[in-house]
Write a structure and sequence with these properties.
The complex is a heterodimer of chains A (about 170) and B (about 325). With about 170 residues, chain A is α+β, with helices and mostly antiparallel strands. Chain A has six helices and four strands. Classes of the chains: A alpha+beta (about 170), B alpha+beta (about 325). Chains A and B meet through helix 5 of A and strand 8 and helix 6 of B.
């Protein structure tokens, strides 16, 4: 892999990362974010701006949290609408809020990576990835998560149409 | 008299030598052809990149989406009961001409509230017995792993039904004029040939079935069993059964309790008849030659005896 920055004769400090998303591979170069001798000079005003913005945003967020007690923005969305297979079923309105309150543990569902709360679709996409056959696709992940828990706990809907109301056949 | 005897001896000697020569040649050719046949067949390991499906029976919840998807893609006749009717589980079903992949329910001794559902269909053997017995060569094991058949050449002998170790092919008895043998073809033309998973696999909401290269699926199955020794029985059904199959299962309950045929050896079924069938051409050549030889020998002996009798009289 060649990087433009390296071709310019700059030293490789090992700050190149490849990000894979679908078929596309993106090379991210963190070369110019280094806080080296040159970095200090060029980055100073950026740093101030970034820190200032962060403080401002955090302050706004804290004020909002304090004023609205019912907000669950830190706990994710209230409802997640699952709307695939629309030809057969009406969309599922999954109550995210109910589950966050009932389980009180994000990691029960947002299982990986530890300490982070990623959306299901950040990792689970199309099924049967030859690179990792053990990782279920998004559909499998949803169903295994919901049904697995509901069956283990013997509570919550487990039948197909308990969650997916059948779409009425058009006449 | 003396000249006559010499002639007689020469004739006899030449006949014997010729006979032995012929026999040796036939024997040699026969042995050679047998050696070639067995060499070719024993070295057959199938296409290394062929696909397979691994079904994890701990995941299936018996929704019958797979049955519905199979029915749709293959344009099969609609079933008597709709696909969301769970009462079909009250009895054990086998593959039928219009239901290529029935799901059956079995009790789970480990967890009573979680019965085990088993989806049945053609196992797509590495060396299919149905293909080896078919008189007209209607069956083909494709490079992609599916066992498909050409129903237009089928003469309805139903040997494939008798030969299948998994009791899969079904006969269209209800069709009086043009009955056909029917079984799962792994959605060969519509999906597998385009490197897409079969319709049942894609329809499954729980992703009970994983689609991929067979060799990768075996690794995945071993990994799952190794990482969850308490959850799964230490056996991959289909890895070695009847010489290995493209469809494989792992299960939390022993397979004999789930209606699986477990008294199958690891020998590919065509192997059982290979010895006999490869001997047929040799026997067909050797046997007439041997009989002709015996006939010639005994005729010649009688001629000699007759000559001697005549010369004795003289």
């Amino acid at each position: 892999m060649t990087f433009a920055c390296l071709q310019r004769g700059e030293q490789d400090v090992g700050r190149h990362h490849t990000q894979k998303r679908g078929d596309h591979e993106r090379v991210v170069c963190y070369h110019h974010v280094t806080f080296g001798k040159e970095g200090n000079r060029t980055m100073k005003w950026y740093t101030f701006l970034a820190v200032g913005l962060a403080v401002l945003l955090l302050g706004m967020h804290a004020t909002q949290m304090a004023t609205s007690a019912t907000s669950t923005s830190s706990k994710g969305p209230e409802t997640v609408t699952i709307d695939s297979l629309l030809d057969k079923y009406v969309p599922v309105a999954y109550s995210h809020q109910y589950h966050t309150e009932a389980l009180d543990d994000c990691a029960r569902c947002h299982h990986t990576p530890p300490g982070e709360t990623l959306a299901c679709s950040d990792c689970h996409g199309a099924p049967f990835d030859p690179e990792d056959l053990s990782k279920p696709g998004l559909k499998g992940a949803y169903h295994r998560q919901c049904l697995g828990c509901h069956r283990d706990a013997d509570s919550g809907p487990t039948g197909c149409t308990d969650c997916h109301a059948k779409r009425p056949i058009p006449k | 008299m003396g000249k006559q005897e010499t002639d007689k001896d020469e004739t006899t000697r030449i006949t014997r030598r010729g006979f032995l020569k012929t026999m040796a040649t036939i024997g040699g050719v026969g042995a050679l052809s047998t050696a070639n046949d067995s060499l070719g067949v024993e070295k057959f390991t199938g296409s290394p990149d062929r696909y397979g499906v691994l079904a994890d029976l701990s995941l299936c919840v018996g929704c019958r989406s797979c049955e519905e998807a199979c029915n749709e893609i293959n344009n099969l006749a609609p079933p008597e009961a709709p696909f969301d009717d769970q009462s079909v589980f009250d009895e054990t079903r086998r593959p039928e001409p219009n239901s290529w992949t029935p799901v059956n329910r079995y009790p789970n001794p480990k967890e009573e509230n979680k019965p085990i559902f088993v989806k049945r269909q053609c196992m797509h053997c590495n060396e299919p017995a149905c293909a080896s017995v078919c008189l007209v060569g209607a069956f083909t094991k494709t490079r992609e792993g599916a066992v498909i058949y050409n129903e237009d050449v089928c003469i309805g002998c139903r040997y494939c039904i008798a030969a299948c170790p998994f009791y899969v092919p079904a006969y269209d008895y209800a069709s009086p004029f043009y009955p056909k043998v029917r079984k799962c073809i792994l959605c060969y033309e519509k999906r597998l040939a385009k490197n897409e998973p079969p319709a049942c696999v894609e329809a499954c909401p729980m992703e009970v079935m994983t689609f991929g290269k067979r060799k990768d699926l075996i690794k995945l199955a071993h990994k799952k069993i190794l990482e969850n020794p308490d959850k799964y029985v230490d056996h991959i059904y289909g890895e070695h059964e009847a010489g290995g199959t493209s469809w494989m299962y792992i299960s939390p309950v022993p397979f004999e309790q789930l209606g699986f045929v477990t008294d199958i050896s690891t020998t590919p079924y065509p192997e059982f008849t290979r010895g006999f069938l490869s001997a047929v051409p040799i026997v067909l050549i050797m046997w007439p030659a041997l009989l002709i030889g015996f006939y010639m020998w005994s005729t010649r002996r009688d001629e000699i005896a007759e000559d001697e009798r005549r010369s004795g009289h003289e």
